[in-house]
Amino acid sequence: MSIRRPAVSRRREKTIAPPAGSDKEKLATLCRARGVRGARERDLADLGYLSEEKLARLSEELEAEGTVKILSFSPLFLISRESFDYLCEKLLAYLEEFHKRHRSLKGVTAEKVKERFGISQMVLLLAVKTLEKAGKVRMQRDRLMLSSHAEELSPQEEDILKRLEDLYYRGEFRSVSLDDIRREFRLSEGRLDRLVNILMERKKIFQGPEGLFIHSHWLDEVVAKVRASGKKELTVGEFKNMTGLSRKYAIPLLELLDQMRITRRKGSVREIL
Known about the structure:
Blueprint (H helix, E strand, L loop, with lengths): L9 H4 L9 H12 L4 E2 L11 H13 L3 E6 L2 E5 H21 L6 E2 H8 L3 H13 L3 E4 L2 E4 L8 H16 L7 H8 L3 H13 L3 E3 L5 E3 H13 L4 E3 H8 L3 H13 L3 E4 L2 E4 L1
Antiparallel strand pairs: 1-3, 2-3, 4-6, 5-6, 7-8, 9-11, 10-11
Helix pairs in contact: 2-3, 7-9, 11-12
């Protein structure tokens, strides 16, 4: 799939005449000329006579008008709204084509997307965040995919998935070793990682800090106990007594509750939100 950039080509950028008009119009023109790569301070040489404060103010005005998006102020990094919308459109088309060609793969790596479109990490992250908010894509670890994409599993894989989920359920709060699981089911590291990710996508298990995996059933029970305690704050000791967990598992589980915004750490205690 070829990509036609809504901007001048690399060959013509060297000979293009300096933009005309007001300083704000010149800035907008330079941003459009940079296309999906975006315009950094070094790309704004024609506006070198402007102070950093003036460039920042003009950038904010252009963003408020919907002409550009600001990726950072220091150093200044902008992308035209036209180019950004074009990138998002092409990215969705690329993912759709990728899923058709590679049905067994979870998604495409972030590195491959950056290389494919010639964009920076900051531009990619902004595009992903925008498309995630619109419910069109999702990013898991380093792989990007359409929100509608569902991996096709064989009956054998679905059976392994059910047995894997049962193992986490029976494990309650014990740390389940991925090495033990790999040996039990005779899975490669990549295949096991894929199946564990599917369980997380289906919200059957959740992963906390320090490699802690917990089945959703047990996590729901913990959340219910915390909220039914009637307390406003919770110490680690109280949480251990409440759940019957050792400190080894209580601390990472509390950190998972912090991530879920069930609790919030406040010094040596947790606020119950």
